[in-house]
Amino acid sequence: MKKRAVLLTVIVPAVALLGFTSIVSIAQSAKVDVSGMWVFTVQSVAGTSSPLVTFKQEGENLTGHYSSQLLGEAALAGTVKGDAIEFTVSTDVQGTRVDAKYSGTLEGNDSMKGKLSTGFGDGTFTAKRKQ
Q1: How far apart are the C-alpha atoms of 6 and 100, rounded to whole Å?
Q2: Which of 10, 16, 100, 119 has a beta carbon 3.0–4.6 Å from 89's, enabling a disulfide?
Q3: Helix H or strand E encompassing 91
Q4: DSSP-assigned letter for residue 130
């Protein structure tokens, strides 16, 4: 009887720990990597635009390139934490510095949506990974 009790006190926690470790490993491997080219649809006080954004993700750090008719060509920097994405595009528009901050939520591997904040007005965005 004591052997059974000892086995249960050792085996049950070990099996539980193994199961928990497997769940954590699966969750970590399911992280989204946004690296690649994305097509955005932005609705703002300036109207509707369709910037093309290329992301490079390393861990939680995000860098890349932003291209639109409204803001032109610019580098971007930000973070991806879980399903939250944030990045800022800083550029010069007709002699005025514009910082466009995108804050959104990833929806799987190939789409996202969120809000845009700028010094001259706010907006919303959706984006799809370019296939």
Answers
A1: 61
A2: 100
A3: strand 84-93
A4: -
Look up tokens 């528009």; give the residue. Answer: 93
pLDDT in tens, 83-130: 999 999 999 888 889 999 999 999 999 999 999 999 888 999 999 999
Cα distances from 19 to residues 5, 14, 30, 96, in angstroms, run: 21, 9, 17, 55
Query: Which residues are registered as beta bridge partners of 81?
Result: 84
Which CATH number does the domain housing residue 64 bear?
Answer: 2.40.128.120
User: What is the spatial distance between Cα 122 and Cα 85, in angstroms, rounded to a whole number?
Assistant: 17
Confidence class of residue 54 from pLDDT cuts 50, 70 and 90?
very high
The pTM score is 0.76
- 121 and 65 co-located in one domain: yes
* Number of domains composing the chain: 2
Amino acid identity of residue 63, one-letter, is T
